[in-house]
């Protein structure tokens, strides 16, 4: 991302110290890079189109309706509906260390077009599971797929290429789908009102949670629960949630293992792996590092035990 920001900085014109805006346009989308070079508070920002805003450098404090005020760091994004206000503080911005953020605006027509295609492909017979990027804002943390797309989009926006608009169109479609999958996953997994329990994917997610430590849990069993063939279930699950059934199961087991590690200072990792539903300690270690970027032992060392 540094090389991309260097390219932007070499061309941008600094006309204000707070939220200096540089705009790049394309079919169906607009990329705005904002740079703040001085301390500021309560800066209001709204857009006439839905946007995804991602932090590039520095820190903001975000005030958005429906959320407690939160710190906003690089690697994080917020999805904002059209005309929804953000109030922003810039506690660390200086001329030598500016706070930089991008806001990618997407035409509502393009969003609706992709949403319609997405719902057609993930539709399950006799189930009302149409997903949308609705009026609620979302805060995304450590979403690698979205972050990777944001970097590619920024690079393509800020560089001249004969195929620029075509490439951006494809990436924007992918980004919308990733956001829809993220929303579907969040709603189904965090389902306090249990409104998705009577849907096939919702039923499977609940079954996984209830049988997480069952070492015989596999895709064939889940497919039977969903009354689908194994291949169709695998495709349907991944299309809806953005992850394969096995990756989802492993991610839930790793979350559970972290709770066990925090709760037991003297427990061996082989025991943690077994209690978390893993048959193999080596596989547990690999999955833990893949998802947490550190080993189970390193995680344990970072935990403060009373």
UniProtKB/TrEMBL annotation:
It holds the Pfam family AraC_N. Residues 202-302 form the HTH araC/xylS-type domain. PROSITE patterns: EF_HAND_1, HTH_ARAC_FAMILY_2. The keyword Transcription applies. InterPro entries: EF_Hand_1_Ca_BS, Homeodomain-like_sf, HTH_AraC, Tscrpt_reg_AraC-type_HTH, Tscrpt_reg_HTH_AraC_N. It comes from the Bacteria. One of its GO terms (molecular function) is DNA-binding transcription factor activity. Keywords: DNA-binding, Transcription, Transcription regulation. PANTHER family: ARAC-FAMILY TRANSCRIPTIONAL REGULATOR, HTH-TYPE TRANSCRIPTIONAL ACTIVATOR RHAS. This is AraC family transcriptional regulator. It comes from Nonlabens dokdonensis.
